[in-house]
Design a protein that fits this description.
Shape: globular
Order of helices and strands: HHHHHHH
Number of domains: 1
Largest sheet: none
Number of strands: 0
Number of helices: 7
Helix content: 55-70%
Structural class: mainly alpha
Length: about 200
Amino acid sequence: MTTFVCACVLAVYWGTVAVKARRLARKIGKDPNVIPREKIGRWMRIIWAPTIAAWCVQPWLIAFGVGHRTFWLRRLLKPADPAVALAALIGMLLAVVALVLTIICWRRMGLSWRIGIDPAERTELIVQGPYRLVRHPIYALSILLMLGVVLAIPTPLMLVTAGIHIIMLQIEARREETHLLKIHGSQYGRYKEAVGRFIPRFRVQ
């Protein structure tokens, strides 16, 4: 069941991204940088797109028994080990929580939501809601979602997928920060100093 739920969570997550991108394109008169306007972003898509495809497809294959004997690291453990089932349950719950919180972040972004970088575009700087806690809550939650899926579906391919996805998020977050610093200047600089990238900064008074 945990595998099937994770498969559904990913379908809802990326299905929502596709629908949201299409609706936003109608509102702003152009696509929200699904294909980035700069070369590095386009090259990153060549790596990132198949990574996301592997992330989304593999749970469905496992859920329907395709490759479950070959690719599961879990088979190296005792099948009846309660810790294995508990890890899968925790992973599933993390995935569901990450999806719900991500939807909240998407709503907060509104018309400023983008998938890639356009060096010539200036969008509103969002610093309220979840963005008061971390600079990249959507990316942080994407990492949480990926880790949840890895717990529920611990296959070698999923581990490789997770590694690539997290590295790409780290790179993209830093590229976005460079872009936002150019666009918003000291306003973003102050925000960057005060708020953590993926983990909240708790200051002791």
